[in-house]
Amino acid sequence: MNFSTDDRGRLALGGIHDSTITQFSLDAAAKRIGIQCLSDAGIITDFAATSLYTLNISALWEGSVISDIFVWDFTDVPDDYLFDPEIGWRHLFEGRIDDRNQLLAQIERYKERLPKAKLVSIGCSYGGNISFLCQELRIEQTHPVSSSQAS
Question: Using an 8 Å Cβ cutoff, are 92 and 121 in contact?
């Protein structure tokens, strides 16, 4: 499905905020990640990223609740998300690159190699964050069938 973001990169899609992560899969050999979440209204949202280049998962536990999801074209990440410890570049390289200049240099190296990549950051309420760099991101939603639609 097509999706859009607001001017800050926040995913503009209903059924995301306060949804629970119900499935998570990582296939490092195939460079894929899959995440499924379920909203209180019964909306199921599936995220599938392919050509995964780098990934950071911190403080994630079963039943994590999503607060926000950001999706940026690699070259359009706002400067505000360069050094935010929970979202964006800083989180992606958490524990690997602490120096500001080294972080900026690494971003430039990736921009040269992967000009069409996407940076995705998922922030969870009450802790837990996922950030990854991928070539393609597919998002699908399944809405519950109401009793009036089923008849």
Answer: yes
Q: What share of the chain is helix, strand, coil (3-state, %, to 5)?
A: 20, 40, 40
- Backbone dihedral angles phi then psi of residue 22, each to the nearest 5 degrees: -105, -25
pLDDT digits (tens, 9 = 90+) for 76-124: 888 888 888 888 999 999 999 989 999 999 999 998 888 889 999 999 9
**Separation in Å, CA 20 to CA 35, 42, 44, 46, 61:** 10, 11, 10, 12, 11
Nearest of 58, 33, 54 to residue 129 by alpha carbon: 58
Torsion of CA 37, 14, 122, 120, to 10 degrees: 110
Listed by start position, the domains of the chain span 20-142
Residue 71: pLDDT band (50, 70, 90) is very high
